[in-house]
């Protein structure tokens, strides 16, 4: 798996039927979005999607799992083909467990205390969630004590506010329904493609 680079967009896929997931992933790849996070908010469906995407795309897709809240979920997702783990909040033991498997984990953080604990665990990337609640100014402020930390903005990120979060210091973004609607189908491919182009163009111009 490649390192997470500045300006990366991760597409969050949630509630998508396995019969629809491959054309959606193909559209994202064709528009230059190679990172995809499959949420386990609907666990069986999510695991089925991870397995199918892993078998279909292999190394072409930077495939991860999100909404992981306990070790057993991480185990099942990794067995299905996930290459990194994203959590909604901070949980030290889960972080240590995933790291012990030699897997990348991008844990959710909400406070400077959460961030401090992540730094103590020698993590280089944290997921700020929900970013839109905290606001871009929060990101700017935490750059002071944590200047080298890679902050991924997640939660409420949209075309209307991604600029402000990027300028404040978010290095990457995981984007949900504003890019791939929950439960999306192939009938929405044209919209997904257009949104993907818009997001890529914004970050390309900033880069």
From TrEMBL:
Signal sequence, renumbered to the chain: none
GO molecular function: lyase activity
The entry's keywords: Carbohydrate metabolism, Lyase
A Pfam family per the record: Aldolase
Pathway: Carbohydrate acid metabolism
Subunit relationships: Homotrimer.
Family: Belongs to the KHG/KDPG aldolase family.
Protein name (database record): Bifunctional 4-hydroxy-2-oxoglutarate aldolase/2-dehydro-3-deoxy-phosphogluconate aldolase
Organism field: Paenibacillus hemerocallicola
